């Protein structure tokens, strides 16, 4: 039996997982992190992105009106 959480229940995401959730490329997520646009936590060499920070980033995006 596995205790893996479903993506919606995950608290922390790797940059690769965050890219999958956002439907962006992994390099785009790293660029957003480097620019300070997407907050992350660094522990040793690992970087993790909180679910709440992913949601805050998405909520900050402005829709394009035509």
Features:
66 residues, Arc Repressor Mutant, subunit A, alpha+beta, 3 strands, three-stranded antiparallel sheet, single chain
> Helical content, roughly?
40-55%
Average per-residue pLDDT, rounded, comes to: 90
Distance between the terminal alpha carbons, to the nearest Å?
A: 50 Å
Low-confidence stretches: none
Instruction: Give the CA-based shape.
Output: globular
Structural class call reads alpha+beta
Largest sheet: 3 strands, antiparallel
Number of helices: 3
The count of strands amounts to 3
Q: What's the alpha carbon Rg, rounded to whole Å?
A: 13 Å
Order of helical and strand elements: EHHEEH
Describe the structure.
The chain is α+β, with helices and mostly antiparallel strands and 66 residues long. It has a single domain, classed as Orthogonal Bundle (Arc Repressor Mutant, subunit A), CATH 1.10.10. The chain is built from three helices and three strands, in the order E-H-H-E-E-H. The chain has a three-stranded antiparallel sheet with strand order 1-3-2. The mean pLDDT is 90.
